[in-house]
UniProtKB/TrEMBL annotation:
Positions of the UniProt region annotated as Disordered: 248-267
Natural source organism: Halobacteriovorax marinus (strain ATCC BAA-682 / DSM 15412 / SJ)
Annotated Gene Ontology cellular component terms: membrane
Compositional bias segments (type: Low complexity): 249-267
Pfam family, one: 4HB_MCP_1
Protein name listed in UniProt: Methyl-accepting chemotaxis protein
Keywords: Chemotaxis, Membrane, Transducer, Transmembrane, Transmembrane helix
Family the UniProt entry places it in: Belongs to the methyl-accepting chemotaxis (MCP) protein family.
PROSITE patterns, A to Z: CHEMOTAXIS_TRANSDUC_2
Alphabetized InterPro entries for the sequence: Chemotax_Me-accpt_rcpt, HlyB_4HB_MCP, MCP_chemotaxis, MCPsignal_dom
Residue ranges of the TM segments: 193-217
Alphabetical GO biological process terms: chemotaxis; signal transduction
Amino acid sequence: MRAVMKKINFKIKLLLLCSFMSLVSLVIGAVSYFGFDHFSELASEVNHDVIPRSTLVHTMDVNYQKTRIAVRTLGLSNLSEEDREQAIADSLTAVANYENAAKDLDTRITKPIERELFNNVASEWADFKKVGVRAIELAKVYDEAAKKDLLEIFLVHCPKAAKSYQAVLDEYTKNIEEEVLSSSEDISRTTHFLNYLLIGISLSGICIGLIAGIVFANKISTSIRATVESLTESSTFLTNSANSIAETSQNLSSSSEQQDSSLQESSASLEEISSMVRMTADNAMKSNDLANRSLERASRGKQVVTTMIHSMNNINTDIDTIVDELDGNNEKMKHITELINKIEEKTQIINDIVFQTKLLSFNASVEAARAGEAGKGFAVVAEEVGNLAQLSGKASVDIAEMVSNSVEQVNHIIEDSRGRVSSLVSNVRTSVNNGSSIANECGEILESIVVSVADVTSAISDISTASQEQSKGIEELQESILQVDSSSKSNTGIAKDASEIAVKLKGQVVTVNSSIIEIQNVIFGNFENKKKAA
């Protein structure tokens, strides 16, 4: 057996190993195909038989619930005509949908037990449907007697029929659920069996393939070991050639020293740039300090402006006070107007008295002239005239007192208003003076801010100068880079020397080729090599 395997070339050995692995895959595929075909049959039965029946039962349950809701709606009192018509239409639609689903389900039933359960559901549905039809008929009439019957259906007949129907429907639904569960368990068992079978076949194939691979690898490694020893001898000469390459590398090292010199010059230029950058940083710090000072002064200006605003608010407050005082003066002037009106009333009384006095005097004169000595009888008239005169005098005294009081009050009001207005004006002037002083202070602060801005501008100018110096440093850096480029050109000549050494290494390719022939002996086998030699 070993002799036969030794004569077989590498290609055939590899094909045999691949054929074995393919056989394992074929077995796995066949088992998977037949197993999943059975699984597909079970799943198809569930999808095309069990699940549709479960769906139809659910549809029947939903439409039964809708019918029940519609019937209960018809039992409500004071239901509008529009709502009754809608409830009737909903109930008829639900009944039609229910019976369509039931008809479809009836054609799918094959088991006697399920048929018996379905017949129970159909019987109870017929009873419940009678209640619904009766409720629809009463709803169409909807007189007092119909309302009473509807209420009885709503409270008694409908719940009783619904309870009976729900019981048989739940029993039928339970049967469907148990069938679904049983189908799921069958599918699960089939899946587990296929998984275990495939795992067993896969593990067996892997173990056998692993053993074959190990044997095959050992045979290959033994042949390759001899070839590696031959290649080791060739590597000795390659080592000597590598020494020559090392000498060439020394030349490359001298060129690298030139590059280092150029890099030092570049480093010096970079140092100058670093110094300039530090100068820029210092100027930036100065600019920052100046900006902070400007910020402080601006803050102070803000505080001053706040004080100014407060003073202006005081002015507004004083103005409001003046307005209030003027309103008070207006009230007092109204009081003076009332006093004057009273004076006018008293004056009217005096005028009436004067008029009556004149009339009585005239009458007394006339009577006295007619009576002569008998005019003494008019003493009563004269006495009345005296009383009226006395009343007139008293009224005049009251008028004089009122006028005197009014004049005093008016003078007092005028003096009081004048004093208050004078005080308010003085306060306003003081506030205005304070505002002017604060405004002047703001001007001084703004002036100092302008000076700070000028300093910031000067610092920015210094930054610009430093940037120019940085530009010069960059130019020097570019010159150093040119020197590095020149050194790289000299490295190109050295690379040519290395290429000549590579030509010497080509001679060793012959030795490598002989080693390749040994590798071919391992790959193609002794039998095929002897055939080629013949």
